[in-house]
Amino acid sequence: MFNLEEQIQLWRGGLAESLGEQSEALVELESHLRDHFEQRVRAGQAPHEAWQEAVAKLGSPGGLKEEFAKLHNRPWIPGWVALGGMLICGLAMLWFVARGMTIGKFRALLAVHVLTVVIGYVAMYMIGMLAAWAILSRAVAGWDGARNGAFRTALSRLAGIAIAGTAIGIVLGSFWARDNLGRYWAWDAREVGGTAVLAWACVVFACAKNRSTSTVAVMVVAVMANVVVSLSWWGPGLIEDRHLYGAKTTGLGTALGSFVVAQLLIACAAMLPSRSLNGRELSF
Amino acid sequence: MKLAKELVAASAAPLILSILGEGENYGYAIIQRVRNLSGGQIQWTDGMLYPVLHRLEAKGAIVSRWRMAANGRKRKYYALKGGGRKILAHHKSQWMLVQGALANLWGT
Description:
The complex is a heterodimer. Chain A is mainly alpha-helical.
C-alpha cells in the first residue's frame, strides 16, 4: 500500500543534510512534489507511479544539492562585517598591548593573555550580534538556505576564534596567576567566567557545524553568547572590586542587567514564525 | 526537438520574469506554464527552477511570500518587483535584438 507521507519523509532525509531540515527550500521542494503528485493522481495515474514521476522530474538529490550549494556560496554581508570587525579589534588590541609593553605597563605574559582573551570575548560578542541580526532578519524578511549556510559558516569561524583566543588566554592567565598570586587556578569569578565562555564557544561551534541542529536552535544558542560573555566579562566586577582594575561600578549592574534582558527577548523572538513581523506576509 | 542546455539556462530568467509579469505565481504552476507555452518543447528539471527563483529574489527582482492555497497547504508565491520589471525589459530588448537579427539573416 503506497504511503505518501512515508515517501516524503524518506525523500526529505536525503536532502535535509545539505539544505537544512527546516529550510524553506526543502519545504518548497516538498510542496512542489505534492503538487505534481496530486495532479498526476487526479489525472488517473497510480499513486506509486505518480510519486516516482514527481521525484524524477524534480531532479536527483545530488543535482539539487549542487544547485543550492551555489546559492550558499553567496557572500552574506553581516558575516563579513563581523569578521572585519574582528580583524580591526585584533589590530587595535595588538597596538594597545604593544604600547603597554613599550611603556612598561604590561609584561609579555600579561600582554598576550589580555590580547587573546579580549579577541576571544569580542568574537563571542560578534557571534551574539550576528545571531541577533539573523533572528530579527528572519522575523521580518524570512530566512533562506543561502543565508543560513553563510550564517553558520560565519558562526563556526567566529566560534573557532573565540575558542582559540579564550583557551590560550586561560592557560596564560593561569601562569600569570602562579607568578603573581601564588597559584594556577582558584575558581574565582574571572576564571569561572573564562571557562564558561570557552564552553559556550564550543557549544556554538558544534551547533553551527552540525547541520541537523535546527536554524532556530543555532540562533538561540548564538545569541546567548552575548549573555555568557557579558556576565563573564563584566559580572566579576560586581562581585569583587579587584576585578574592576580600579574602575567604578556605577550603573554597571543596570547596564549589564538591561543588556541581558534584551538578549533574552531577542532569543524569544527566534521562536516567532519566519516573516511574522512582516505585516503582509503569511507565516512560514 | 530538445532545446540545448545553454539555451535552456539562458532563457530561464526571462521566462520566469515574464510569467511573473502576468501575476503572482508558484513554482509548480510556473513550470506548467512554461510547458504549455512551449508546447512541451522546453523541459526543465523541475527542482532547478527554485535556485533560479531564489537567485532572482536575492537580486531583488522578485519577492516571495507563503500563502495558504485552496487545498489547505502552504505554498510559496513569487511576484515581480519594480527592479524585476527593469531586468525583464532589459532581457526583452536583448532577446528581441537577437531574434530580429536571426530573422533578417534567415529571411523568416
